[in-house]
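In response to the reviewer comment on reproducibility (Comment 2.3), we provide here a single inverse folding case reported in full, input and output, so that an independent group could reproduce the run without further information from us. The structure tokens appear first.
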């Protein structure tokens, strides 16, 4: 699949390289997200632009350059961050990097079902108060059901994950 995508990418752009600012925007969307931009602007107003510029200069641009360099240096490795760490350091440190990467996703994944409930509140009621109107037990049980539903859907193959990813990406703009 990646060979087909790589060939189409090369045919379309004439090369297989992604520019640093494209990687920076991808990183920005994945790490920071458009939701944080809207929320921060609503809370802090125009003064938030200063912190955005600092975050861009101190994190996203260096991150994009580092990922680009490591990706091009270790283009044959298939393990991402853990492969990069293993090739530049030790297997033990690579294990810790992979473990840390996995562990940080636990709280992230735990809060996603609640974020879905809040989004449903905006769709159904026009505000984000749905969760605050429910009991803690109801929120926990519904969040668990949503989590288990997505876990079950993830076992249905790559095409299902592509559809879910496409819907989630589209929902970010709605």
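Designed residues, in position order:
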């Amino acid at each position: 699949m990646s060979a087909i995508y790589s060939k189409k990418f090369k045919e379309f752009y004439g090369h297989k390289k992604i520019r640093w600012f494209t990687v920076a925007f991808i990183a920005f969307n994945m790490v920071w997200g458009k939701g944080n931009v809207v929320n921060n602007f609503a809370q802090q107003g125009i003064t938030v632009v200063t912190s955005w510029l600092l975050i861009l200069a101190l994190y996203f641009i260096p991150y994009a350059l580092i990922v680009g360099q490591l990706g091009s240096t270790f283009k044959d490795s298939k393990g991402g961050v853990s492969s990069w760490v293993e090739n530049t350091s030790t297997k033990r440190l690579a294990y810790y990097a992979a473990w840390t990467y996995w562990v940080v996703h636990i709280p992230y994944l735990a809060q996603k079902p609640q974020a879905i409930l809040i989004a449903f509140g905006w769709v159904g009621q026009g505000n984000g108060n749905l969760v605050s109107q429910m009991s803690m037990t109801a929120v926990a049980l519904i969040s668990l059901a949503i989590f288990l539903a997505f876990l079950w859907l993830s076992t249905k193959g790559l095409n299902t994950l592509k559809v879910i990813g496409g819907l989630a990406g589209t929902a970010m703009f709605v």
